[in-house]
Amino acid sequence: MSNKLDTGIKNARNVNRYIFGRGAIQQLASIVSSRRNSAKDQVVFLIDEFFKTFPEPLGGLPRQGDDLVIFVSTRDEPTTDFIDALTEEAVSKGGREACAIVGIGGGITLDTAKAVSNLLTNGGHAADYQGWDRVKVPGVFKIGIPTLSGTGAEATRTCVMTNQENGLKLGMNSDHTVFDQLILDPDLTATVPRNQYFFSGMDAWIHCVEALSGSFRNPVGDAFSTQAINLCRDVFGGDEMMSDESRAKLMVASYLGGCAIATSYVGVVHPFSAGLSVVLGFHHCVANCIAMMAMEPYYPREYREFVDFVEKNEVHIPKGVCIGLVESQFDALYQSTIIHEKPLVNALGVSFRDNLTETRVRELFEKM
Amino acid sequence: MSNKLDTGIKNARNVNRYIFGRGAIQQLASIVSSRRNSAKDQVVFLIDEFFKTFPEPLGGLPRQGDDLVIFVSTRDEPTTDFIDALTEEAVSKGGREACAIVGIGGGITLDTAKAVSNLLTNGGHAADYQGWDRVKVPGVFKIGIPTLSGTGAEATRTCVMTNQENGLKLGMNSDHTVFDQLILDPDLTATVPRNQYFFSGMDAWIHCVEALSGSFRNPVGDAFSTQAINLCRDVFGGDEMMSDESRAKLMVASYLGGCAIATSYVGVVHPFSAGLSVVLGFHHCVANCIAMMAMEPYYPREYREFVDFVEKNEVHIPKGVCIGLVESQFDALYQSTIIHEKPLVNALGVSFRDNLTETRVRELFEKM
Question: Which residues neighbour B194 within 8 Å (Cβ) at sequence distance 6 or greater?
């Protein structure tokens, strides 16, 4: 794996603007107001449902007139039907003319905001745009405000969603999917439950670990990944992962980790994690952590560091998740893991199937 | 200096897109062609004069029809008159209708391309836009291709120029000054003279060192600076600063260092360096290195690392540059150093004049 191949020369698209700092959410009012040409111009707020009953951290939305506030359920990860339903709700209330979309929440909410933004201007259904570069015109101007750190959704050109009809879990990979503006305010992650905070944070760490262990490499991606890993190490190897300083660092790590994704690939963890999500319904970040617990053969040093993080921060990773599964479920787990060829080639080379036989894959799932 | 103040909540603007990789310059043709609506659409190429007699590294420009190629002299750093003259030359040949500007070169050429781009669409003269947010409308779509690493000009929202009428050295600080597209191809720095390569590279290292030693801080800026410094350490503390791997790393460090500038301030080195440039005409990067040689009292650890870099890479830093200067020149050096209040407050606090007395400043210049 020391043979560094190039990732191919990709044209990476950055988020246009970002504001970083404690209390940065207070800048939302002026940013939103700069998007309104008249007082009647509508803003669509898509907000993690958590803030419905606990709105204090947001400090009052700059809401007026016909603005729409839609709370986004985070019980399940987004499906294309879910995105279509939310888009329809927005459209029925005038959303096609919205001057801005504001997404406030974790990866689910941010991805939802990106997808709805694209659909409002492009028309059609979410499933029409799953894939690469299928979005034709820019979406509604979109502002992302993460309230959870780690997935990097704030910085990427995709928005992951599952099409339940055909089982396809694939985002709208497009330059148009990238946020126009980010507000990165580490005060907003103070109320995240500790387990969730850890799982999400580990998403950044894990994809950077996978990227740096792979054979498809790019010096820019490597630099972002290295710094994100160092920040995660400070946070999860330090005294208190949720101190003010740690939350600020993890928010930076998440952003840099998201930037790294543009020029890197993941490895063995994400395909297994995808299996857990598709077959057993685990959310992405906890699924990564569950998978990581069986990754000692592939990432021995990182596995030990991960276990240290878990113990040090006294978090709970679900165990024994594959106990009692039937043959057809193991088969589905194998299929939905092995399908991720690009990351597996990145990690193990083109002959990855020689290593990841059906028996071997099952053994690994049984360890989780 | 351990008391971290916030830099204030700034809305940082990223470069829209970047391509990073060896041979990336080959992508220029398709990018330029995507900007032309018709074959008659003009592209303006502003190119470091070095490539006039040695065009091979650029591999053939995608030039056609009425395209303009202007070679930019790098003997002196840009003045407002120089920018105006280049703009006039472009305008006289139809440049106001240009569909793209391509800047290929070091900081001088990139800054020139940014400034000319703004002037072609905004009209008027360069001096009209020196300052903050005075540029009214977006410039011509601009593509930056650095052939030297370190200044970060490829990533910043300014383009430094001196107004010789009033002595003001100040850029067009504006979101409109940021490049729309970068092509970062480390093969293009293979022919840089070793001293120049070192001086420019040290610009990234020095401003990141100053930023991380200052009291105005931002976690995003800190992350970019830290990683840029680590990369510089690999490059200048490693075996060969100009190997393929080192040149790739330094190009990344330059980009990250440029990104750091948006949310950080420099310290003591840059004000002294500015003095050397304004009064004695030294170019920015060599002036930084000359100044750094007298910075042991302010950055003791970094000073030692810098001296190690100089010795290891066998580069030559001009010495004794203030020998034989007259009183009025020392006075001018003092004035043009002490005027940089913000970085000096960042480094030394609001009472920086107690430390940097006229005598003390003169002593430091005499050590250079």
Answer: B241, B242, B313, B314, B315
Tokens linked to A32: 């939103």
Query: How far apart (Å, rounded) are the C-alpha atoms in residues B139 and B131?
Result: 16
Residue with the bigger pLDDT between A38 and B244: it is B244
CB-based contact A16 B12, cutoff 8 Å:
no
- C-alpha torsion angle, residues B148, B149, B152, B154 (rounded to 10): 50
Mutate to test the interface with A, among B28, B178, B187, B220 (most CBs of A within 10 A): B220
Rounded Cα gap, residues B263 and B217, in angstroms: 7
C-alpha–C-alpha distance, residues A188 and A236, integer Å: 19
For the stretch A314-360, pLDDT in tens is 999 999 999 999 999 999 999 999 999 999 999 999 999 999 999 99
Given a contact cutoff of 8 angstroms between Cβ atoms, the answer to whether A280 and A290 are in contact is no
**Three-state SS string across A93-157, please?**
CCHHHCCEEEEEECHHHHHHHHHHHHHHHHCCCHHHHCEECCCCCCCCCEEEEECCCCCCCCCCC
Contact B14 A10 (CB under 8 A): no
Q: Which helix (DSSP H) or strand (DSSP E) does residue B208 occupy? A: helix B194-213
Option in A6, A218, A252 nearest B219 (CB): A252
Residue A20 to residue B263, Cβ atoms within 8 A: yes
Q: Is residue B217 within 8 angstroms of chain A, CB to CB?
A: no
Interface of A with B in 226-285 (CB under 8 A): 226-227, 230-231, 248-249, 251-253, 255-256, 263
Whether residue A184 lies within 8 A of chain B, CB to CB, comes out as yes
Q: Please indicate whether, in this complex, the C-beta atoms of B9 and A18 are within 8 angstroms of each other.
A: no
Determine, for residues B16 and A16 on separate chains, whether the beta-carbon distance falls below 8 Å. Answer: yes
ipTM of the complex: 0.94
**Tokens describing residue A62:** 């700059």
Tell me which of A2, A3, A18, A20 to substitute to probe the interface with B (most B C-beta atoms closer than 10 Å): A20
What is the identity of the amino acid at B19? I
At A309, which helix (H) or strand (E)? Answer: helix A300-312
pLDDT tens digits, residue range A65-108? 999 999 999 999 999 999 999 999 999 999 999 999 999 999 99
Q: Calculate how close chain B gets to A361, using CA atoms only, in Å.
A: 35
Q: Cα separation of B42 and B93, whole Å? A: 10
Strands B17-20 and A11-13: antiparallel
pLDDT on residue A5: 54
Contact assignment for A20 to B13 by CB distance below 8 Å = no
The pLDDT of residue B116? 98
Mean pLDDT of all residues in A277-286: 94
User: A211, A364, A351, A233: which is closest to A297 by C-alpha?
Assistant: A364
Nearest to A20 among B22, B27, B219 (CB): B219
Q: Residue B272: what are its φ and ψ, rounded to 5°?
A: -65, -40
A interface test, pick of B2, B3, B11 with most A CB neighbours within 10 Å = B11
Do A264 and A10 meet the contact criterion of CB atoms below 8 Å apart?
no
Average pLDDT across chain B, whole number: 95
pLDDT digits (tens, 9 = 90+) for B4-27: 555 566 899 999 999 999 999 999
Q: What is the rounded distance in angstroms from the CA atom of residue A269 to the CA atom of residue A207?
A: 8
CA distance B254 to B19: 14
pLDDT at A169: 85
Q: For the beta carbon of residue A44, count every other beta carbon within 10 angstroms.
A: 27
Q: Beta partners for A70?
A: A46
Confidence at A2, pLDDT banded by 50, 70, 90: very low
Q: Take residue A225 and report the two structure tokens written for it.
A: 């990944």
Contact B20 A219 (CB under 8 A): yes
**DSSP annotation of A363:** H
* Cα–Cα nearest to B218, from A255, A2, A56, A161: A255
